[in-house]
Amino acid sequence: MGSGKKLDFLNLRQTVSERVNEITDARQDGKIKHSMHDSCLSALAMMYFQDSSMLEFQTRLQENAQRNNLQTLFKVSSIPKDNQMRDIIDKIPSERLFPIFSDFFRLLQRGNQLQGYQFLDEGYIIPIDGTQYFTSESINCPSCLKKEHRNGITTYSHQALCAAIVHPDKRQVFPLAPEPIKNSDGSKKQDCEINAGKRILKQIRNDHPKLKIVITADDLYSKQPFIEALKQQRMSFILIAKSTSHKVLFEQILQKEDLDQANRLEWKDDRGLIHKYEWINNLFLNGNQTAPVINFFEYSILKDEDRIIYTNSWVTDIQVNVDNVKKLVKAGRAKWKIENENFNTLKNQGYHAEHNFGHGKKNLSFNFFLFILMAFFMHQIIELRDPLFKKARCKFSARKEFWNQLRCTIRILVFENWESLLLFIISPDTEIRAP
After folding, report:
1. 369 and 94 in contact (C-beta within 8 Å)?
2. What's the CA gap between 94 and 435, in Å, rounded?
3. Looking at 295, 323, 351, which one is the last position of a domain?
4. Count of domains in the chain?
5. Does any domain span residue 433?
6. Whole-angstrom Cα distance, residue 260 to residue 279?
7. pLDDT tens readout for residues 264-300
8. Does 414 fall in a domain?
């Protein structure tokens, strides 16, 4: 898994190469023109530099100069045409790419970069949430989710349940391997986010058997079957619970409200906003005889006593008290980071997560999504650890402008390594050594 423990582009790229080289290629030797490694690393490079047409530029560069940045930076010896690359990647079982996420995670562990991410005594905060990355009214495959609308139109989509390690006070997030929400062969019942949620819990625990984990999620997950699945995987939880979907729970809260006046905390910030915390421990989640016992807390921000700006409530297995309620609220609200820092970045900040790079017949659409997440994970680590990257990035006010400059540069110049590219961005007068 990579050479050494250094958290840099070279080790991250080598980690992907090593894992991809472990995948069995079912093609006949005499018919292999482009290796699986070259196809996968070409796809990763395309996602890494956030340019869906990068391969066309690099192919032209190769024809003219016999060298290109795919060879020097990503060790691609033979660049496949788009259709060839799609055909090869379509046939790769997606689960063979999952270990790359655990490899990146362990590189972070070995580099002592995860210690500061444990926010609660109960463990690392891992929000989970679903996202859609492909939709069409005509293109579809057996794995597509199908939705028939009232106007007679049928849409087909691909969705995934994503998870990431986050910290309320840190910008970088570290994605874990996602779980596809897809229909299985021969199954008449459509897959759903909750079923994917149960699967991803098993996957996370298998990948990280000793990790202390606190799962955060929205109201969809704060139901008995999912909480039982969390307990089975030895995970704590902070799950949004709304009054509209938890009537029995909120009836208990109303009955106990007068008895638990002590379980309240209130303070006013510099802007005059009132922050109110309320909690009750040892309640039943629902009216079932086997209902799990949970703890409840609520947080509100008020302009004054009559005007509420924000309010939310959660259930948790963690005992709530005056000493930890503020941290629990921050942990619960950190769920937005997977929506903003992860999904919003992937869809709106240059990664083209909703762009149809290719649908395929088997695994192509999801595998391309995996390469996008890998590139995002690499960027998160490099932003955290690479001083040259930080210096180069500071020269541009907008993130898109920075990556656009990188793309423009690699189209006309060949760099021996990632560091040479960054040095040139920092100082364009830097002499470029021929590889």
Report:
1. no
2. 34
3. 323
4. 2
5. no
6. 8
7. 999 999 998 999 999 999 999 999 999 999 999 999 9
8. yes
Angle at 352 between CA 351 and CA 357, to 5 degrees: 120
First-to-last alpha carbon distance for the chain, in angstroms, is 26
Give the DSSP per-residue string, 42-83: HHHHHHHTT-TTHHHHHHHHHHHHS--HHHHHH--SSPPPHH
What DSSP string describes 134-155? EEESS---TT-EEEE-TTS-EE
Residue 212 placed within a domain: no
Q: Model pTM?
A: 0.91
- Element spanning 164, H or E: strand 154-165
Q: What is the three-class DSSP state of 126?
A: strand
Antiparallel, parallel or unpaired: β 123-136 and 213-217 = parallel
**354 vs 346: CA distance, rounded Å:** 8
What's the one-letter identity of residue 206? N
Residues 6+ apart with CB under 8 A from 261: none
pLDDT tens digit sequence for 26-51: 765 656 677 899 999 999 998 899 87
Per the structure, the complete domain to which residue 402 belongs is given by: 9-97+359-426
CB burial of 70-100 (b: ≥16 within 10 Å; e: otherwise) equals bbbbbebebbbebebbbbbbbbbebeebbbb
Provide the token pair at 428: 């364009």
Tokens representing 236?
């704590």
